[in-house]
């Protein structure tokens, strides 16, 4: 079954002289939720609009469900989109909005309205059909937009930063709802966000974009556990990036950091300068020296409730650390001893 | 043959092209190819369909074999649809067929003109002007072409959009560029058909009669071109300053009678062009009320100062200040108060703030108002005709060289070229002056700050200029009403209904008889304006939609050409239409259709501007949502965009309706005995010295337009309320 599969073959997009997308190839498996993640201006929206058919590719091929749709207009693609601004039609009631896609494709009115009601029930808005969009809260409007997109039973559902207009609490709730509906209906969904936590929470796979191309793609765990670059390491979860010298490669890798040799249980491709990725919660602090530790001074400490956040001044530069809460945390100016487990460390090439 | 990777897009292209092919063939076989005597919609041609009003097939088989040429295109389309399987190949086939058919049609149309032929081809052939059959066939060929273009796999391939672009380009080409080319051809024609060149044109173009500046040096009168240019500059400067004064009073003061001012600024827009000149004569002319009064009082000589530059200027100031005001109030309101506040916090005083911040930010508005004032002034025909005296300007000269005792079309063409170069120079100068600087303070964003008040000196200057002016305008309107109810203004002020009776008399005897002399032109005017207004709004808004929402090849040129038609004065358009549409292939003179068409293309630019403004405020994601939900562009336009554009549509309707009623410059050449318009009827009365009836008629027109505007405003008002509470949070 290829229904719902999305495939880009070396697709590029130019706006005049602006390169919005360098040759980009990707495959999205049917029934999965894939997130496009990346900093502002990296081409996420452009990619999404190319799938929807709202922009035409400058070169390359786009396939949906195995069919070449590169030159098919948006009207005829089996794709629906949820817009950041919701784009509800202000002059139609909620029911008319949800039924719109059905009525314009010549579904009989009664059936269209019945299915619209089902769609509204699915997003928990039963009984809101006669209201106007302006008579709903932001979160409700968002759900109407989702209902309007899914009643058409699209092969692919596209969502462009659907939650950015909602407050933090509601955002978490609605994103779980969207994920739940997507799984229940077995839809392929492509989700654009620049919030990495949101991406980690809902996605089967994440495609991280940067400068109009894909920086790395994989499951949330893969991206976190095996970042391919300093950019990814920093973007997916927080990371300390420390400059090191790789002195020996092979099945194990030996690095030189601050005059200390450490052997890491991982492979790296070449010797020379590299960057060590150390996650903030993988750093252990103790008041007394332990084997392999080095001393540092606390330059900033904050108690955040469930964690304590420190910034340390170390010989290799500032180090950002998250520690479990204790009764007597370290204070500004304290000297502490820092160590970490070599198996927690990842290496990436210097940017 | 379909399916495969081409799928649904291919099918749609086939279906659309097939439909247009059928329509084209149908028109070719079933509709009268040439223009029919009684007009198409009277269906008088039905009984003679296979005789005098035959369709193209019959003509082709008999004496006019060249009609086979357009058939080539339809034939090509048939072959393409029948034999070309691959969708890009098919699209190319359709494009080629469309181009072939259209160029064949244009070629035979421009070669065999009525009784003559050109280029030494088809000797002895004749044919009348094209009719419904030719029109539908060319439309079909055009849409076959555009459907083909949509399938070429460039861009998103929407046949509706390419069709719309094609249709508007074709309309502008046929009804703006084609007639304008006649002016150029006439202007550069050599004597006795010796071809084209500059030898005739240059001396006549640069003749002292056009360009003499003698009046400035004090010995003699100036050339007409210089007169027009001076008048245009004076009027543009005056209306811009006065408009600015009004706009400042409205936005930056607490003046009490703003409502009344507003009405006074609208009235001149709906006043037929001669009325103001006429009332001025009755007041300030040699026998005018004021003149006589002051002459007796101060014992000074009565002069004819009104008939000349200053009289025309005064009348134009009265007529065109409202336009400048309407342009400027938007801009003055749009200057963001936060900028002014920022300036004041930097310790600038009010005058410095106005001088260095507000004024520069209003620059685009001032430039626009100035340009509009200039174009309106040099194109104005009514006021110079009534008040000009020995002061001749281009528009009246053009008129007299067409309708005068010695008709001289070549002179009219050359004068039109001069007039056009004046307006185009102004147009280009304005664009250059504004340059590419960004004046983006005019955003749609709500600013909470308050506008800086004017400093007292400036405020009092505004009051002193604007209030007497407003009072004078008010007086004129009172006098219009007064003048229409007295026997002979200035001589016999007894009350009478005579003028109204003569113009709008109704006799009820064996039914209702409209015996008044004006009924005919009144009804024609309302009908034609009523037909033209929705069409103008449609063409204007469609163009705006394409400009704001669609991307297509050549969009910049497309935008420029729609803007350009705005710089063509009405007089010039009128002359061009007379020259172009008086004989085959398109013969329209003396029909009502030509009036409708001239209004559409004269007033379209304003519809475009209004549409662009309104469309830019509609979030683009609304149409995109509709498209991704499976609606095509046509459905989106109908169900989403149009319902949300209510106010813009009604504004465009009102404007084009009013302009169609009050316009005179273009119309004066195009009216006929059967289709006479109100304004040209009034010109006739004025020329005969029947002022009473002219004024009475004008008063009726003013009231008619007021009623129309109020009705539309009521609808707009209601719509706005409903829209507001619906749009709010979306
Ligand atoms: N219509 C356009 N014309 C010109 N350039 C454009 C256009 N649309 C997008 N771009 C450019 O293409 C690039 C990618 O834009 P895109 O909207 O895809 O970014 P994005 O990743 O969605 O960013 P954000 O997170 O800010 O929404 C940007 O550099 C943008 O300036
Ligand atoms: Mg975006």
Please provide a brief summary of the model.
With 351 residues, chain A is of the alpha+beta class. Helices cover 24% and strands 35% of the residues of chain A. Chain A has two domains: 6-225, P-loop containing nucleotide triphosphate hydrolases (Rossmann fold); 238-348, OB fold (Dihydrolipoamide Acetyltransferase, E2P) (Beta Barrel), CATH 2.40.50.140.
What attributes characterize this protein structure?
heterodimer, A: 351 residues, alpha+beta, six-stranded mixed sheet, five-stranded antiparallel sheet, 20 strands, 24% helix, B: 730 residues, mainly alpha, MetI-like fold, 3 domains, 6 strands, 68% helix, 2% strand, disordered C terminus, binds magnesium ion
Write structural notes for this entry:
The complex is a heterodimer of chains A (351) and B (730). With 351 residues, chain A is of the alpha+beta class. Chain A has 2 domains: 6-225, Rossmann fold (3-Layer(aba) Sandwich), CATH 3.40.50.300; 238-348, OB fold (Dihydrolipoamide Acetyltransferase, E2P) (Beta Barrel), CATH 2.40.50. In chain A, 24% of the residues lie in helices and 35% in strands. In chain A, strand 1 (6-15) and strand 2 form a beta hairpin. In chain A, helix 2 runs parallel beside helix 4. The longest helix of chain A is centred in the middle third of the chain and has 18 residues, at 168-185. Chain A is elongated. The mean pLDDT of chain A is 89. By secondary structure, chain B is mostly helical. Chain B has 3 domains: 3-154, no CATH class; 233-440 and 447-495, MetI-like (MetI-like fold, Orthogonal Bundle), CATH 1.10.3720.10; 508-729, MetI-like (MetI-like fold, Orthogonal Bundle). Chain B is built from 31 helices and 6 strands. In chain B, the strands form 3 sheets. In chain B, strands 1-2 form a two-stranded antiparallel ribbon. In chain B, helix 10 (224-252) runs parallel beside helix 14, helix 23 (519-549) runs parallel beside helix 26 (592-616) and helix 30 (678-687) runs antiparallel to helix 31 (691-727). Residues 1-5, 436-449 and 719-730 of chain B have low confidence and may be disordered. Chains A and B meet through strand 5, strand 6, helix 2 and helix 4 of A and helix 1, helix 27, helix 28 and helix 31 of B. Adenosine-5'-triphosphate (ATP) binds next to strand 2 and helix 1 of chain A. Magnesium ion (MG) is lined by residues 44-45 of chain A. Chain A: Residues 6-236 form the ABC transporter domain. Chain A: It holds the Pfam family ABC_tran. Chain A: One of its GO terms (cellular component) is ATP-binding cassette (ABC) transporter complex. Chain A: One of its GO terms (biological process) is quaternary ammonium group transport.
């Amino acid at each position: 079954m290829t229904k719902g599969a999305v495939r880009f073959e070396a697709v590029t997009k130019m706006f005049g002289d602006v390169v919005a997308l360098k040759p980009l190839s990707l495959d999205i498996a049917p029934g999965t939720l894939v997130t496009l993640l990346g900093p502002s201006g990296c081409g996420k929206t452009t990619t999404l609009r190319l799938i929807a058919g709202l922009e035409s590719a400058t070169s390359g091929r786009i396939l949906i469900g195995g069919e070449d749709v590169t030159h098919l207009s948006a009207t005829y693609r089996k794709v629906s989109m949820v817009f950041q601004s919701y784009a509800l039609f202000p002059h139609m009631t909620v029911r008319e909005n949800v039924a719109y896609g059905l009525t314009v494709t010549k579904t009989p009115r009664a059936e269209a309205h019945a299915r619209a009601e089902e769609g509204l029930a699915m997003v928990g808005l039963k009984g809101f059909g006669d209201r106007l969009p302006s008579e709903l809260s932001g979160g409700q409007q968002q759900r109407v937009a989702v209902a309007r997109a899914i009643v058409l039973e699209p092969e692919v559902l596209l969502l462009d930063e659907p939650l950015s207009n909602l407050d933090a609490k509601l955002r978490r709730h609605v994103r779980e709802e969207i994920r739940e509906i997507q799984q229940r209906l077995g839809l392929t969904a492509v989700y654009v966000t620049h919030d990495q936590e949101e991406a980690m929470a809902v996605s089967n796979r994440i495609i991280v974009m940067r400068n109009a191309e894909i920086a790395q793609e994989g499951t949330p765990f893969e991206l976190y556990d095996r970042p391919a670059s300093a950019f990814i390491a920093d973007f997916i979860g927080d990371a300390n990036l420390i400059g090191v010298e790789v002195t020996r490669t092979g099945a194990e890798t030996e690095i030189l950091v601050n005059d200390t040799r450490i052997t890491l249980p991982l492979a790296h491709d070449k010797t020379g300068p590299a960057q060590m990725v150390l996650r903030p919660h993988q750093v252990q602090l103790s008041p007394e020296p332990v084997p392999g530790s080095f001393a540092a001074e606390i330059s900033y400490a904050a108690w955040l409730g469930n964690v304590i956040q420190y910034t340390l001044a170390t010989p290799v530069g500032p180090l950002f650390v998250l520690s479990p809460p204790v009764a007597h945390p370290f204070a500004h100016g304290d000297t502490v001893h820092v160590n970490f487990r070599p198996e927690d460390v990842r290496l990436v090439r210097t940017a | 043959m379909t399916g495969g990777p081409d799928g649904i897009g291919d099918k749609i292209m086939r279906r659309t092209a097939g439909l247009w092919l059928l329509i084209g063939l149908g028109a070719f076989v079933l509709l009268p190819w040439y223009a029919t005597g009684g007009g198409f919609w009277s269906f008088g041609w039905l009984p003679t369909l296979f005789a005098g009003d035959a369709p193209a097939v019959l003509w082709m088989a008999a004496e006019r074999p060249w009609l086979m040429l357009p058939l080539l295109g339809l034939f090509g389309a048939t072959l393409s649809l029948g034999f070309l399987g691959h969708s890009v190949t098919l699209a190319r086939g359709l494009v080629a067929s469309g181009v072939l058919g259209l160029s064949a049609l244009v070629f035979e149309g421009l070669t065999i003109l009525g009784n003559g032929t050109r280029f030494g081809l088809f000797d002895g052939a004749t044919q009348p002007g094209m009719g419904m059959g030719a029109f539908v066939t060319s439309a079909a060929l055009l849409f076959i072409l555009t459907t083909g273009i949509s399938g070429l796999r460039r861009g998103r391939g929407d046949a509706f959009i390419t069709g719309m672009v094609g249709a508007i380009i074709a309309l502008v080409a046929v009804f703006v560029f084609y007639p304008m080319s006649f002016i150029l051809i006439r202007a550069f024609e050599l004597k006795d058909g010796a071809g084209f060149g500059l030898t005739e044109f240059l001396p006549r173009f640069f003749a002292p009669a056009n360009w003499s500046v003698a009046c400035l040096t004090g010995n003699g009168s100036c050339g007409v071109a210089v007169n027009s240019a001076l008048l245009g500059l004076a009027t543009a400067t005056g209306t811009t300053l006065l408009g600015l004064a009004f706009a400042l009073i409205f936005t930056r003061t607490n003046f009490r009678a703003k409502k009344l001012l507003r009405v006074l600024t609208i009235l001149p827009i709906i006043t037929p062009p001669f009325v103001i000149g006429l009332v001025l004569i009755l007041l300030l002319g040699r026998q005018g009320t004021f003149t006589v009064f002051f002459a007796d009082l101060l014992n000074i000589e009565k002069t004819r100062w009104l008939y000349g530059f200053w009289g025309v200027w005064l009348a134009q100031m009265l007529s065109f200040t409202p336009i400048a005001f309407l342009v400027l109030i938007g801009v003055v309101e749009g200057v963001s108060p936060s900028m002014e506040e920022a300036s004041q916090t930097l310790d600038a005083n009010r005058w410095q703030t106005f001088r260095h911040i507000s004024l520069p930010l209003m620059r685009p508005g001032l430039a626009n108002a100035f340009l509009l004032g200039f174009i309106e002034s040099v194109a104005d025909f009514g006021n110079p005709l009534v008040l000009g005296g020995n002061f001749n300007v281009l528009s009246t000269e053009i008129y007299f060289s067409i309708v005068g005792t010695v008709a001289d079309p070549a002179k009219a063409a050359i004068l039109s070229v001069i007039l056009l170069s004046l307006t185009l120079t102004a147009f280009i100068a304005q664009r250059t002056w504004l340059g590419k600087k960004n004046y983006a303070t005019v955003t749609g964003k709500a600013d909470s700050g308050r506008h800086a008040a004017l400093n007292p000196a400036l405020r009092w200057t505004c009051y002193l200029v604007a209030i007497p002016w407003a009072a004078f305008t008010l007086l004129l309107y009172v006098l219009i009403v007064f003048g229409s109810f007295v026997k002979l203004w200035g001589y016999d002020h007894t009350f009478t209904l005579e003028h109204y009776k003569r113009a709008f008399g109704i006799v009820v005897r064996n039914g209702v008889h409209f015996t008044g002399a004006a009924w005919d032109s009144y009804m024609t005017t309302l009908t034609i304006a009523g037909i033209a207004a929705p069409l103008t709004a449609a063409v204007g808004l469609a163009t705006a939609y394409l400009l704001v929402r669609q991307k297509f090849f050549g969009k910049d040129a497309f935008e420029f050409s729609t803007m350009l038609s705005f710089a063509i004065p009405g007089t010039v358009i009128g002359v061009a239409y007379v020259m172009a549409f008086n004989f085959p292939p398109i013969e329209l003179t003396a029909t009502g259709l030509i009036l409708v068409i001239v209004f559409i293309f004269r007033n379209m630019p304003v519809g475009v501007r209004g549409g662009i403004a309104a469309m830019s405020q509609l979030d683009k994601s609304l149409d995109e949502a509709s498209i991704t939900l499976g609606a095509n562009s046509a459905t989106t336009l109908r169900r989403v965009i149009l319902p949300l554009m209510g106010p813009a549509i009604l504004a465009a309707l009102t404007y084009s309706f009013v302009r169609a009623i009050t316009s005179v410059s273009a119309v004066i050449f195009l009216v006929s005995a059967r289709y006479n318009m109100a304004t040209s009827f009034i010109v006739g009365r004025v020329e005969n010295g029947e002022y009473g009836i002219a004024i009475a008629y004008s008063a009726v027109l003013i009231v008619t337009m007021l009623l129309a505007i109020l009705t539309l405003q009521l609808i707009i008002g209601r719509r706005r309320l409903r829209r507001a509470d619906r749009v709010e949070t979306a």
